[in-house]
Amino acid sequence: MRRNRFNNLVQGALFCAALLVTAPTLLAGGTSVTLVTPRCVTIGTDMIVDLRIGAGAPSVVGLQSALSYNGAVLQFVSEEPGDAPFDLPIYFTHNSALSNLSLAVGITPPNAPSAGNVVAKRLRFHVIGAAGDCTPDQLVQFRSDKQVRNLLTDSNGTAILPVLASLNEVNLGPGPSITAAADIVGEPPIGSMQLITNLGVVTASGCGPILNLTFVRSDGELVVSAPFERANSPISIVWTVTDECGRSSSDTQLVTVNVVYGDLSGNGIVDAPDLAVALNSWGTANAAGTGDVDGDGTINAKDIATLLNNWGSTTP
């Protein structure tokens, strides 16, 4: 029984190999074969590349691939099994001098053919170097080879030329960087302790496609464009960019409301005109913050007290 099973496996391997190499008919675009890997990889660790057959494959029983890889970034470690039903290794060769791989894998008869959406083979590489923040798709790619064609074989013995998709760029390099706009020193409108200002442009870079930009204001405001109150000045804004690997970088921007605390009239000193502005706005609440010395949204006794406590102060 053991001998018969061994003979069946050998015959199955030869059958699949013959189909993969000698099938007479080629149907372009029958399905796809894609090289897939996690995007976030660290130098000094291993990376698994999947050879995935796309969904909707027409009764596939075998896959043959010719691949090349960037030997300056990757060191080939081993071939590893794919998912069921691709359980039959047919051949595998590795040319380390040329950084080339050639392989074929099939399904042991009489197991049913595959309809795709399956990993037929896995390849393990060790990451030894990085070409930059984002390594391009030449990291691992399908190779044009006259002797080993990239194709699939269906259960009728027909060779199918699939659509090939090489490895997308991989995040190998350092984390992202960010530069906040210049610090701001501004004067609020006459009668107000609120500064509304354009914060400028924050520039961030890193390996994409996803970069997440967030901010934290020291005054607790959740809207970055909210007015800046003199009572909280200077206000810091910590800008943070986070890449898809969870690595972050931050930069801080300062906003200073450049007016003496209580100088509602804008004459550079806290005096009678400021008291008049506050009293004329007594009991009101307004978006512009006119007369609102402490920035709590209402002009009341606290504003008068703050104004009197700063009586005679001048703008630096």
Structure description:
This protein is mainly beta and 316 residues long. 12% of the residues lie in helices and 38% in strands. Strands 1, 2, 3, 4, 5, 6, 7, 9, 10 and 11 form a 10-stranded mixed sheet that branches. A 4-stranded mixed sheet has the order 14-20-19-17, with no helix packed on it. The protein has a two-stranded antiparallel ribbon with strand order 8-12. Strand 19 and strand 20 form a beta hairpin. Helix 2 packs antiparallel against helix 3. The chain starts with a helix and ends in a 7-residue tail after the last helix.
What does this entry show, briefly?
The protein has 316 residues and is mostly beta strands. 12% of the residues lie in helices and 38% in strands. The chain has helices spanning 2-22, 272-280, 301-309, and strands at 26-36, 46-53, 60-69, 74-81, 88-95, 100-106, 118-127, 134-135, 140-142, 151-154, 159-165, 170-171, 177-179, 184-186, 194-195, 203-205, 211-217, 228-229, 235-243, 248-257.
Q: Which descriptors apply to this entry?
A:
316 residues; Immunoglobulin-like; Type 1 dockerin domain; 2 domains; ten-stranded mixed beta sheet; four-stranded mixed beta sheet; 3 helices; 38% strand; disordered N terminus
Number of strand elements: 20
**From the alpha-carbon coordinates, what is the Rg to the nearest angstrom?**
34 Å
Distance between the termini: 98 Å
* CATH architecture grouping of the largest domain: Sandwich
**What would you call the structural class?**
mainly beta
Unreliable stretches, pLDDT < 50, 5 or more residues? 1-29
CATH C-level of the largest domain = Mainly Beta
Q: Can you give the helix content as a percent range?
A: 10-25%
In DSSP terms, counting alpha (H) and pi (I) runs of 4 or more, how many helices? 3
Q: How do the helices and strands follow one another from N- to C-terminus? A: HEEEEEEEEEEEEEEEEEEEEHH
Can you tell me the number of structural domains?
2
CATH topology of the largest domain: Immunoglobulin-like
Question: What proportion strand?
Answer: 35-45%
Largest pleated sheet: 10 strands, mixed
